[in-house]
Amino acid sequence: ATFIDIGAYSSKPGADFVSEDEELARILPIITRVLKEFPEALLSIDTFRSRVAKECIQMGAALINDISAGKLDDTMLNTVADLHVPYIMMHMRGTPQTMQKDPKYTNLFEEMEAFFVERIAKADSFDIKDIVLDVGIGFGKSLEDNLSLIHHLAHFKKLHKDILIGASRKSMIDKVSSSSVEERLPGTLTIHLKAYENGACIIRTHDVKEHVQAFKVHQAIATQL
Among residues 16, 103, 128, 198, which one has the fewest Cβ atoms lying within 10 Å of its Cβ? Predict the structure, then answer.
């Protein structure tokens, strides 16, 4: 893995609320342990709270992965700017507790593009330049929305930012082909390879070894074209 993403607040649909103190109590010891064993590791911190982001970066983490793009903590962008670290901003409608309650869009791509344009402009106002976009597969979106996003991911390349995709073992795979979480690696690989073909350059996954093999083979084939 190029970097390791660590979070202490589940963002799956309907996830329980976790206090800020509890989130820190969970995540800081893990950062300490990982960096002690693997001091060269680059750690990404999955949080939407500026205090958590700040303390984790001060402990040695390298970038911030925010599912809310700064909308759930008014001080997040200012904190990221002060820390001078890369920032992953994701599109999500609502919160993890509400996002999957009948999500509907008039025009999915227009609304998401407007969201990212506004968020990028806001980040620019804090002089944050190193930005990655995550379209938020499964975050306030129907199965059809998720499939369409993967198929037309190149739409967001016009924003001139790196694109991250993260569909690892997600329920959309079960909706296409009935499967338990443990059985969803083939579907995950299919989604991620397609997303890569359509413009994604960062893949967030649980199954690193399998993805490295799949992408090496995919790239070997591509060099023959």
Answer: 16
* Active-site residue flag, 204: yes
- Identify the DSSP state of 181: G
Phi, psi of 113 (to 5 degrees): -60, -45
**158 contacts 116 by C-beta, under 8 angstroms:** no
Contact predicate 198/151, CB 8 Å:
yes
* Choice among 54, 93, 170, 184 that is catalytic: 170
Sheet with 87-90: strands ordered across: 4-7, 43-46, 63-66, 87-90, 131-134, 162-165, 202-203
Name the token pair of 68.
Answer: 């809310």
Residue pLDDT, tens place only, 12-59:
777 788 999 999 999 999 999 999 999 999 999 999 999 999 999 999
Which residue in the block uniquely carries the two structure tokens 């700064």?
A: 70
Is 170 tagged catalytic? yes
Out of 194, 204, 209, 216, the active site residue is 204
Tell me phi and psi for residue 202, to 5 degrees.
Answer: -130, 130
